[in-house]
Write a structure and sequence with these properties.
Number of strands: 0
Number of helices: 8
Structural class: mainly alpha
Shape: extended
Strand content: under 5%
Radius of gyration: 23 Å
Distance between the termini: 69 Å
Number of domains: 2
Oligomer: single chain
Order of helices and strands: HHHHHHHH
Length: 182
């Protein structure tokens, strides 16, 4: 019983350390490459791969090959990992039977990142408009720009009442069902 409790504590500690360091890396990557983000960061498989890099079962180079469309994840990893006081890797220390635990945690993390962006999408969009307008009109007061964005622009982008949009029939190719009717 005591031995089982020690294994559970060790596995829990390992999981916490791995997922924390994976999130530190991904958050740093998001800050560095915010204009070139891939939708992969919202997928469980991506997070599982990052965790494997953290506990050294996947090399940074192979991770970069897996996600070749992402700009320089290996360079970003090395840059962060080489900072003073930062160590992104976690030693296994005899931990076994960790795969399912890590996989489940990665599913939770990817869901959390999805939820964050979905729940904050309007605010993220507003901040983008505030940034663009402030850069275009540097003499404008930020309060005036915020008022403009929140009172006028967002209502146009995110109308509170659904509107009907007419889409011409020839905009999209026919569905399989439409082709079979012909």
């Amino acid at each position: 019983m005591k031995n089982s409790l020690l294994k559970i504590k060790a596995l829990s500690s390992f999981l916490r350390d791995v997922t924390f360091k994976a999130q530190v890396f991904v958050n740093y990557y998001i800050l560095k490459h915010s204009k070139d983000l891939s939708n992969d960061i919202f997928k469980q498989k991506f997070w599982y791969s990052v965790c494997r890099v953290v506990y050294k079962k996947l090399s940074v180079e192979n991770f970069q090959k897996q996600y070749s469309k992402m700009p320089s994840p290996a360079d970003t990893w090395n840059e962060l990992n080489n900072r003073e006081g930062v160590k992104l890797t976690v030693a296994m220390d005899g931990i076994s039977n960790y795969g399912q635990v890590i996989s489940t945690a990665c599913e939770t993390i990817s869901t959390s990142y999805n939820s964050y962006y979905i729940e904050h999408f309007q605010n993220i969009t507003a901040n983008y408009f505030i940034y663009v307008i402030s850069n275009a009109f540097p003499a404008a007061k930020v309060s005036a720009v915020k008022y403009l964005v929140y009172q006028f622009i967002l209502d146009g982008v995110f109308p509170s009442q659904p509107t009907t949009v007419e889409v011409p029939d020839d905009t999209l190719p026919p569905t399989e069902q439409q082709q079979q009717k012909k």
